[in-house]
Amino acid sequence: MKTTKRKMTLWLLAWPIFIEQFLQFLLGAADTLMVSRISDDAVAVVGFSNQLFFALQTLFMTIASGAGILIAQKLGSKKREEARVLGIMAVSVSAAIGLLLSVILYWKPVEIAQLLNMPENLLPLAEVYISIVGGGMILSALMAALGTAIRNTGNTKGPMYTAIGMNVIHIVLNYAFIYGAFGFPQWGLTGVAISTLVSRLLASIFLYWLFIQSFDQRIKLRDFKIFDRKLFKEILHIGWPLGVNSSCWVFTQLIIFTFIAMLGSKELATRTYMNTLESFCFLLGFSIALAVQIQIAHLFGAGRTKEAYQGAYRALLIGLGLVTVNAFLVFVMGKRILGLFTSDQEIITIAGSLLLLNLLLQPGKMLNMALGNALNAVGDTKFPMWTAIFSMWLIATLLSYYLGVEWGYGLVGIYVCMIADEYVRGLLALWRWRERKYLKRAEAEQQAGVLPTNGAVAFE
User: Where, by residue number, does the polypeptide cross the bilayer (predicted)?
Assistant: First the structure.
């Protein structure tokens, strides 16, 4: 597969990403549903542990995300060997970080759970789940690096097919180990952990097979010794602000959940159900945002700055239309859908007011995602980082505590702060994109003969 000849239309990039993300969402929902058949304690352990794993993933996603943007830029500017080296380094460094995390999580699961204040009665289950799934964190690191590299060559279908296979295998193995089906032993939560590990291992093998043939020159095992300091500095230059940005989101969300827990179990359950409903709006917009990041990075690398600039607005308009329609459908049908999950009328009533606020939330998210990813695509990653530090911590977190908890507005108050955070970051990203700072710099370098004036990738 020769990456530089692949068409980079927004639709061709976006639809496989959407299916991949949607399947990941279904995997989480199916996991929760199946684990609930074991016990409520098992569900609590899985949910808590997954929050921990997600937080730790920001360590290697920093490298993978930075390398992914650079791969797209280098391919756009016809620097194909540099793109290949970036992919190799992203995989090897991410794997090293993942291996270190695997060792720590495997050997110290109880100590880590205690450090995070997990209830004593859950520690035996946590020891099993964290040691097995956390012990395979290297597989998560490999999947992140391999998938990101492949996706940024323009091949978004490969990771999608991988996600389909991984989901099917994981659900089948979950069923087998939880219920003792197909002659398998009934291993409960241990079986769920093993199922997760096996499905990720098989997914990593398939992604590796795709990765080694994703560039003009096939990648061999000995190539993983390659380490280019100059290119790695470029990864860190783009990647560390992305890591800070992601960390801000992960940790502020954890803190906001503790605020909601202060309000009561009904509010916490309502927020959990609303997360599920919001995902139907969020995933499609998120897929458009990821696709436009890949497209703009290629265009930027090819020196086609005007097309890159306009491409962000085109994706934004498409995304706004899609998420607004989805949010309206959720608003109209939300209470009926919630009735499938719970019969508690208090929860359904609380959610009713949030469904209206979701109509305001989703366009703000789309504005933030589309233009934030456009800035990332051209290497302007520090600006979104600083806006995230300011807005996520002061508006989404601190203000939500006062409005939601101290001043008694509850979940509605917290949602209002979440909406304000999205629009503040989105409007700041819009202002920054309209400045065209990095695009103007690239145009000046292009006129000076430093950058190419055309690329080898077809765009629409």
Answer: 52-73, 85-108, 128-149, 161-182, 188-212, 238-262, 282-300, 312-333, 345-362, 383-403, 409-431
